[in-house]
């Protein structure tokens, strides 16, 4: 047997250097709960920085292409001459092609990232992705100082940024899933998923504020920001309890009754931690009950969400609100309210799904409610600023609620599904399949919007409402299953357990 000093050195070998330094300063080991807090904080800021860099493109669109959709001479004078090649008659279409290039590579990269993420150190994998994202986001802005007007330069930079961005989501969901069980997972991950909206809001405000100094700063500064946070991930992120030798003294108890032959009645909320820990294959992960319908649902849900992510500031900038056109900065700032509604929607969807023990019912209900919300925002959002703000908040809540729920709690549930017989090394793969499929829809939505919006924004919103309807319908089988389970439980159980007060 080795000496005590050798045991401590071996135990610290898997710990991030920042955690080791903290333990040396405190002269005591970090507790399990502290590790959980560190995981939530570090992954929150990590993915918020991903979205902050992703949001920059939507903010600089009006600076690159001021003429497309402009309805008044006053607005054209206000926006300036733009940036070639995006200030020509096909400028809006070119911007749409940048979006689809980014998102298509992001979606394809997501499948590979999940596969690789389940087979290597997620801390190193995530750090490399963040630094790479920072480099290529900043390189987009270098086109401003380098006076670059070659479309393919921006196209290649966006594609490389999308490739590195694809490392983010499978990594952070897998890490959080390693540290948290299913108890209140919907609520915890709903609150944690606010990083998406916080990142969007931060990216919008920073990019909008920097536009007056030149649009290059609007991409370069967020790029440097994510690279710095990537360094923090390398120093402080513990990937799993096993990797740092942490033990949970308060193991989560399974309180829900188990029924014989129960396979699909609780398709999402059952997990098992015992078994052989070998990474799950891509095809095997697709066969997990619930993965395919939720992945296809997210295809259409992200089509709607990412159309707003990439085009809402542009839409606001070229739509008169109470007879007045807003500036680039004002449009970018106003668009952040969509993400404020998204924060509320994500938390609400997570809490409701935990309370009802029904992820599919919650997600489908939100998607159906998004349809009238989209209609009212398009029809009445231009009446006044107050009406625009209220309708934007409501739309953001219903659009981002199911998107947040599926990409967090649902992905984590399915990644630890009972059919895996306890194998927890499927989290990144399952997350990548669901979000990768959704990201294909996220690529198609902004691309179509680039072409359709040049002719009619009404047609764009019709497309979004149709996508929301299809997203809800794709969950019909799971909704019916959850409803049947509720009926069965109400018949077999004499009554609800007493509520603790």
From TrEMBL:
Family note: Belongs to the major facilitator superfamily. Organophosphate:Pi antiporter (OPA) (TC 2.A.1.4) family.
Organism ancestry: Eukaryota, Viridiplantae, Streptophyta, Embryophyta, Tracheophyta
Listed transmembrane segments: 32-50, 94-112, 124-145, 151-180, 192-211, 217-237, 291-312, 332-349, 356-377, 389-414, 426-448, 460-480
Any one cellular-component term (Gene Ontology): membrane
Region (Disordered): 245-267
Coiled-coil parts of chain: none
One of the GO BP terms on file: phosphate ion homeostasis
Primary location: membrane
Subcellular localization, as worded in the UniProt entry: Membrane
Membrane topology: Multi-pass membrane protein
GO MF entries: transmembrane transporter activity
Alphabetical UniProt keywords: Membrane, Sugar transport, Transmembrane, Transmembrane helix, Transport
Name of this protein: Glycerol-3-phosphate transporter 1
